[in-house]
Amino acid sequence: MIHIMDGEFQVFDKVTYIDCEPLYVVIDLFEVQAEDIEIKDIFHKELESIDTKSDRYINADTDYPCIVIEDMINPDNKKYRMIDGRHRLLKTIEEEEDTIECYVLYFEQIRKFIKELDENI
Questions:
Q1: What is the pTM of this model?
Q2: Domain range summary for the chain, segments of one domain joined by +
Q3: Mind listing the pLDDT tens digit for each residue in 103-115?
Q4: Is 53 helix (H, G, I), strand (E, B) or coil?
């Protein structure tokens, strides 16, 4: 559950990443409640490369909320930026749903979890 931030997804002047596992710990610790978010309001990485026959896609549980950041820079200036849940998002879109359940966090909450990318990732 690593979200790499490079190219159009870059937020600093270098390539970085965020490990989403600790974010789920924070979500549990602070009892963050999931919200239904309009899919059209979420900036996300492309979905075309997802293999819909892969185990990862097949086992993606759309009942488990994704993580979006409300005020994180994105090229489309959408309200939210997805950092975890791309396979769940594609499944939800293919089910012709307009909303997806997400934990909504803010950039200042996740900023300390952003790390510089090195060869170990």
A1: 0.91
A2: 2-116
A3: 999 999 999 999 9
A4: coil
